[in-house]
């Protein structure tokens, strides 16, 4: 079982098309099924019209998937329960720091290049935490990574290279590189990291295909899988589609969408040939 899991916060671009086509081809190669999951936990940026557009674009590419489609926004109580399991192990603490405060205090960076959270709020007293929660300060909840790693022990995960039919090798997970990652964000009872491992297990995902930009994040997902006693799939990391400047295509950078290419005269076969899936 495989899955393609876009966020409906914009229109799909060529990078998404490559990932989707890679996933559906992988499912065919191993006699599996490719699911569509809508990762819409960010209720401020995700829109139903974008979810509809995702399905329209994928169908235009010639892809099909089983119904019903899983929408993460309908599963908040399930993610909250998973976070409560972590909290019961004394692995979670509230953080009140803003992005600017973290940037100012950080002395290192995580694998994505973002300021590494220095653990400021781990040192707040119970009284300070209660006071800030009582007055409604914006809060998110972080994992005590050192304690979590000590509890889970050394972990490895399986990687099939260069695709799902390739040899499966084991890699050592290095979640310590990420520090105290956010588990629950303000306004939602989850984060990408928490919801993705919970849903992969719930949907019986056996193989995860994702871009190489997500390779390092897998270290942290493996840690969460161990803590929550969830099965670990086999991972395959595919190349990224880059723009003329050598940068990854991104909605935030207004990369040209599939529907814009379609309006310009591209056919689904043109897209497939351009991405190497003729």
UniProtKB/TrEMBL annotation:
GO terms for cellular component: cytosol. Keywords: Aminoacyl-tRNA synthetase, ATP-binding, Ligase, Metal-binding, Nucleotide-binding, Protein biosynthesis, Zinc. One of its GO terms (molecular function) is glutamate-tRNA ligase activity. InterPro entries: aa-tRNA-synth_I_CS, Glu/Gln-tRNA-synth, Glu/Gln-tRNA-synth_Ib_cat-dom, GluQ/Sye, Rossmann-like_a/b/a_fold. GO terms for biological process: glutamyl-tRNA aminoacylation. Residues 3-257 form the Glutamyl/glutaminyl-tRNA synthetase class Ib catalytic domain. It is an enzyme of class 6 (ligase). Its EC number is 6.1.1.-. Gene3D superfamilies: HUPs (3.40.50.620). Belongs to the class-I aminoacyl-tRNA synthetase family. This is tRNA glutamyl-Q(34) synthetase GluQRS.
